[in-house]
Amino acid sequence: MSSAIRPKDKLPSAKLISCPWPHLIVDNFLPESVLAKAIAEINSDPHSFDLRKRGSGRIEYSLLRSKTLWTALYSRKTINLLSAAFEVQLTLSRENWIQLRRMNSDTPEFPLHNDFVPPEDSIVSLLYLSSGWEMEFGGRLRLFTSEDESTLASSVAPLQNRFVAFRALESHWHAIEKVCGWERLSALAMWDVG
User: Fold this and answer.
1) Residue ranges covered by each domain of the chain
2) Residue 66 class from Cβ within 10 Å (0-12 exposed, 13-18 middle, 19+ buried)?
């Protein structure tokens, strides 16, 4: 079940989906001109991705250096959208900032996990940046009803300019499918609730 979100700054197709747990999906999040400028900035800057292990997974990340994308994500419009969707007040986390994340054929599947870090209450948001996604490329965000890997409830395709957000709660189990023959770039931001 989903419901449309109607913050003061309207966005096309903003839906809060309740199954298996509340997550927000907004397609065509950025205006095309803003997305094109942000991708041009990202492509013109050879990012040096750091690697961090997390369980059996691996995170490839760099601080986001696109001023255009940083400004678009860290905006009153995004804050209003997230506040309306999750009925909370929030600020951008000063510990994580906004990261550019990469997955490709060399990256292992990101295992089942939740993003809860006690005692913090936070929201995770992703904006998918890579174009040309097809089913066989993988890279979907997989949502589970429990920490049992047989409880897959739904998947979210990493379509370009799709924004996804959810609360980082202990019960919000998710994984990221292995990517094959494609590069999955996304901008990840953590938002502090309270």
Assistant:
1) 2-193
2) buried
